[in-house]
Each structure stands twice: as C-alpha cells, then as structure tokens.
Specification:
The complex is a heterodimer of chains A (326) and B (314). Chain A is mostly helical and 326 residues long. Chain A has two domains: 2-76, no CATH class; 91-324, Orthogonal Bundle (MetI-like fold), CATH 1.10.3720.10. Helices cover 76% and strands 0% of the residues of chain A. Chain A has helices spanning 2-28, 33-38, 47-56, 64-76, 91-126, 131-144, 148-162, 183-220, 223-230, 235-272, 278-287, 291-319, 321-325. In chain A, α5 packs across α11 (278-287), α7 packs across α8 (183-220) and α7 crosses α10. The N and C termini of chain A lie close together (10 Å). With 314 residues, chain B is mainly alpha-helical. Chain B has helices at 2-17, 19-23, 31-38, 40-57, 59-62, 94-130, 132-147, 150-160, 166-176, 179-193, 196-204, 208-216, 221-244, 255-264, 273-301, 303-306. Chain B is globular and about 75 Å long. Classes of the chains: A mainly alpha (326), B mainly alpha (314). Chains A and B meet through α1, α6, α7, α8 and α10 of A and α1, α7, α8, α13 and α15 of B.
C-alpha cells in the first residue's frame, strides 16, 4: 500500500509538471501569447466570450502566480477551452470522440504486441540461435528502427492501394449507420482497424521481444532452473512456470514506461491512416494552429499514460510480493 | 520450420568469429575499433553508417546544386537515367533532395545525440556520485521527464514556434530527451562509486573532479557510447516525424520534409513511389545501422549475450 501511495504521489507531481508546462509554453514564446493563441477567434466570437477564454488559459491582469492559479482553477473544473477549428465545440468534447478510437486501437495493438513479444522472447532465449532467436529477433529489431509513419505508409500503399484488401483510411465505412450493436458495423470497424493495428504491433514487438529474451537469459543461468531441470520437470514447466514468471517482471515495469512512446507512435500511425483518433485530432490542431486543442490533447495523453502506469504498478504489487513487503 | 532455419544459423557464427578477425589482422587499429569490427553486427552497422556519413559530408560534390528544392524538370517523372530517383510534383530532383537531406538529417541527429549525452552525463554522474537530497531531486526530475509522453509534448512546443528550423529542433529535442541516458548513467555511477578503485583514489586524496573524470567516466565508456547512439537514433526518427506532420521548415530539404511533401501531394494515390520510398529507406537504414551497432556493443560488453549457441560446434 505504501508503494502504491508513493507512486500515486509521484504521478500527481508529474501531472502538475505537465500542467505547468502547458501554462508556461505559450508564455515562453517570443511575441504576444494571447495574439498567438486567439488571433483566429477575433471577429468570430463576441468580446465577452473571448474574455472568458482568456481566463481559461490564465491570461488575466495580474502577476504570473495569479495567472497560474486562474488557469489551474479552470482546469480543475474540466475546462480546457474551446476548439478553434471546431468552433464552438469545447476541447474536451473534441478529444473525447478521438480518445475512444485511440484507446481501442492502441489498447488492442499493445496487448497483441506485448503478448506476442513476450512469447517470442521466451522462445528465443530458450532455444538460442534457433528460428525465433536468429531470424525473428533481427527482423523485429529492424522494424523497430523504422520510422512509424513510414512503415504505416508502406503498409497502406501495398495492402490498401496495391492489393485493395483493406480500406484506405478512417475507422468505419461512412455508409454504415454507426451502431455498436450491429454486427455489420462492428466488422467494418475491425476491418478498418487491422492495418493501423498491424503497423503498431510490428514496430512495438521488437522491444518486448529483446527485453524478455535478455531477462530470460539471465534467469536461465540461476541455480533454481538447474535444480528444476535436475528434478526432471518437463521443459514446458521449467520454461514457463520457473523461468518466464520471474523474467517477466522487468518487462511489466517497462510496459508502463514505454506506453507514452507507443502512444506517440500511434499518433503518427493514425495520421497516415486518417484514423479519427487523438493523433488525427492533433494533426488537424497543428494544421489549423488550434492551440487550445493541441494543449488539450497533450494533457489528455499525459493523463492516460499516468493512469496506465498506476494500473501497471498495482499489477506489479499483486505479482511481486517483495514490493509488498518493502 | 526448424529444418529450414538450421543451415542459416550454422553459417552465421562461422562468419561472425572467423572472417572479420582474419580480415583485420595487422592494421594498427585502436582496441575499441578492433572489437567493434570483430563483432559481425556492429561491423555491418558501422559500414552502413559510414556510407551515410560519407554522403552527408560530400553532399555538395555528389549532387552539386544551388538549392536542392529548385524546380529542374517536368513534374512527377518516374526514375530515369537523367533523374535516377525521378522528380516530385514540383519538378524537383528527388535524388538531389535526398543527398542534401542526408546532410540535414544526419547533422540534426548527431548534434542532438551529442548534446543529449552531454546533459545526461552531467546530470547522471552528479546525481549518482553526490547522492543525498541532490540525487533524490535529480532522480525525480529524470522520472518525470521520462513519464511525460515526449512526442505530444514536442509537438505542442514545436507548434508554438513558427516553422522551427533544424537548429530549433535540436534545442527542443535535447531539452526533452536527456532523461533516459541520465538514468542509465546514474545507476552505473552508483555501482562504480562503491568499488574498490574509487575508494582507493579517494584515500590517496584525488579531488572529486579527477575521480569523476579519470576513474568513473572511463569505466562507463560503452554505456555512454550506446546511450549516445540511442539518442542519435531517437533524434533522427523524431525529427523526421515532426517534419512529416508539418512541424518543420518545409522549405528545407531533409528526409522528413520530402516525406511531408510526398504525403501532401498524394504520392501514395498517384503511385509516385519514388518520392516516398527512398527517403524512408534512408531513415530505416540509418536506424538499422545504429541499432546493429548497439546490439554489437551489448554483445561485446555483456559476454552472456554474446555466447553463441551450441550449434556452432556442429
């Protein structure tokens, strides 16, 4: 419990730092931040509405700390401002739509990449120099050095444009009514998800596989593995129940750490596939210089990463009794 | 399946151990280079990387031009003898763009990697060596920077800057990506600080700066080099990503901007593969070479990973 509380405290500090960064960044740029952020609102909103928007981002008369607290209090009320590109929809609503798609896509892809990577890593370490170790490992290593978005472009070019097996983009066929209970809609969603998910899996799998393999190799040289083998236990049992269970712990901590990285890559993948998630939202925000939306997306992604980390920590406590004792 | 891959694994170790060592028997090479060239993965990586460094350095000679983005020919031509990588929708020579793009992308990658490592060394060693509350604070800073998703943050920062050029990108990337290296180096410093030779140096009365520079730092060389390589790779990929989504100076020729224009000109739909395959191949090859060098260094410094399977004897 103490461990979890300590972690929780750390995440709160990290959140405060990102919020503060969000507050500081416009103010660090040369030129007038208000001008920079809200120039496009002029003439589209009545002056009083603009005034309240200024307040959301802490642009009030007064010293910096007063501006900061104004900003914080708006943030605590869940007020992230109004999107410029999707005027007058609030930023939170724009992001909520995208976040659902991103979580489904990244969630699915990460679970697949993690399980497949762990499994292949176990195999690679168990049989050094055989297929998984000497063929799959270098290939996944090569793939993880690829730029995410370029791999996405290649996949799109060959499988969607060239072979025509998959749609060119978007998350579902626009001529199907959006209804989660209809099988037709569900299959359309899955069909649209395959290519972007594959891209994310391909780039992410190498890291898991290499990490798990190297942990496994260390664990396999432990005495209790020799002991288990001397007892005449089956290879399967030694591999999964004795070695893999202990070797997987560092990967779990790594899981949380790398999530931000995976999300970053997923944003780029979404952009290539015009997948209507947070990444695509971010791109439109960048193109239209929609600063409130840009900042909102950054905060939202940070919160998602922190929450996922907290979940991973909780899982860690359940799995490793040593952490509980400490 | 296992019958198919076996010959391949039998061939690899033979090439790895015997050939390169015989190939460089008497050249007066420093030891570190000898051990890198003796490792097959690292040697291949180094060869690919040297090629791109060569292209970057001699870009003005390989593809002489006033401005790589100048319109020189009919737009959207497929590769031919005259324009070996074809032309873009704006009639630019893709080959010229790529050669000059190599210069920009490599320069940004290596500069950022070096700055990142300098910051990481200073912060990592200070935290690890001095310890106490100082270490607590610096470690907290490292962990926070590590957990905040870097790419979205970089995008927000870059978004507020109007068309950030290569130099701005170097600064932004350096400020955001030092934490990983710092954490690795801190952990290593902690281990080294308690070792006998550092204790001996302290007893002899060596000043702290001397202990850090001459006792601790040389013993972390491989870690520093591999984190440096990781940082270079990260910088090259991130720069390309930023430019690809339009957060760069679109008037500069670099691998990322070529891909940005390819995407904007619907190169995929118009089947103009020569505008988006070559720059991506360049990024992937440089990334691959850096990854290979890092695998090699890993194997050289960690004998447990190096030990080849028993297949070798057969």
């Amino acid at each position: 419990m103490r461990f979890i509380l300590r972690r929780l405290g750390f995440y709160l500090i990290a959140l405060l730092v990102s919020v503060t960064l969000n507050f500081m960044i416009p103010r660090l740029m040369s030129g007038d931040p208000v001008q920079l952020m809200f120039a496009r609102f002029q003439g589209r909103m009545d002056p009083r509405a603009i005034e309240s928007l200024y307040e959301t981002f802490g642009f009030v008369q007064g010293p910096l700390h007063e501006q900061y607290f104004t900003y914080l209090s708006h943030l605590l009320q869940g007020d992230l401002g109004v999107s410029i590109a999707n005027f007058p929809i609030p930023v939170t609503e724009v992001i909520a739509v995208g976040l659902g798609w991103t979580l489904r896509l990244v969630g699915l892809a990460t679970v697949i990449a993690f399980s497949a990577g762990i499994f292949l890593g176990i195999r690679a370490a168990w049989r050094r120099g055989r297929f998984a170790d000497s063929v799959i490992l270098p290939i996944t290593g090569l793939l993880s050095a690829f730029p995410y978005f370029w791999l996405a472009m290649l996949v799109l070019y060959f499988f969607a444009l060239g072979l025509g097996w998959f749609p060119l983009g978007h998350a579902y066929s626009l001529d199907i009514h959006q209804d989660w209970s209809s099988p037709e809609y569900l299959s359309s969603v899955l069909h649209h998800m395959i290519l972007p998910a594959t891209t994310i899996v391909l780039t992410a799998i190498g890291g898991w596989m290499l990490g798990m393999r190297n942990n496994m190799i260390s664990v396999l040289s432990e005495d209790y593995i020799t002991m288990a083998q001397a007892k005449g236990l089956s290879d399967r049992r030694v591999m999964y129940t004795y070695a893999a269970r202990n070797a997987i712990l560092p990967s779990l901590t790594g899981f949380a750490m790398s999530l931000g990285f995976v999300l970053g890559g997923a944003l780029l993948t979404e952009i290539v596939f015009s997948y209507p998630g947070v990444g695509y939202t971010l791109l439109t925000a960048v193109n239209t210089r929609d600063y409130p939306l840009m900042q909102g997306v950054f905060l939202m992604i940070t919160v998602a990463v922190l929450v996922a980390n907290l979940l991973a920590d909780t899982m860690y406590v359940l799995l490793d009794p040593r952490v509980r004792a400490a | 399946m296992s019958t198919v891959e076996q010959p391949q694994t039998a061939v690899q170790p033979a090439g790895a151990t015997a050939a390169p060592q015989r190939a460089f028997p008497r050249l007066p090479l420093p030891n570190w280079l000898r051990s890198i060239l003796g490792n097959r993965k690292a040697a291949i990586g180094l060869v690919i990387l040297s090629f791109f460094v060569f292209v970057a350095v001699f870009a003005p000679l390989i593809a002489p031009t006033q401005n790589p983005n100048r319109m020189v020919a009919r737009p959207v031509q497929a590769p031919s003898a005259e324009y070996i990588l074809g032309t873009t929708r704006q009639g630019q020579d893709v080959f010229v763009q790529i050669v000059h793009g190599t210069q920009v992308s490599m320069a940004v990658g290596f500069t950022t990697g070096t700055v990142v490592m300098a910051i990481a060394i200073i912060i990592g060693i200070t935290a690890g060596y001095i310890g106490g509350i100082f270490d607590e604070l610096l470690s907290l800073a490292m962990n926070i920077v590590l957990i905040i998703p870097a790419l979205p943050l970089i995008i927000v920062v870059a978004g507020f800057i109007d068309r950030p050029g290569p130099l701005t990108i170097v600064v932004v990337l350096s400020l955001i990506s030092w934490a990983y290296g710092a954490r690795v180096l801190r952990a290593q410093t902690l281990t080294l600080r308690n070792s006998d030779f550092v204790a001996a140096a302290r007893v002899v009365g060596e000043p702290t700066w001397r202990i850090v520079l001459f006792e601790i730092l040389p013993n972390m060389t491989s870690l520093v080099v591999s984190s440096w390589i990781g940082a270079v790779l990260y910088a090259i990929l991130t720069q390309a990503s930023l430019e690809f989504i339009g957060l760069g100076d679109p008037n500069i020729s670099s691998w990322g901007t070529i891909l940005y224009w390819a995407q904007n000109n619907a190169a995929l739909l118009t089947n103009a593969w020569w505008t988006f395959i070559p720059p991506g191949v360049c990024i992937a090859l440089v990334g691959f070479s850096l990854t290979l060098i890092n695998y090699g260094i890993d194997e050289i410094t960690n004998p447990r990973l190096r030990r080849e399977p028993k297949v070798k004897a057969a």
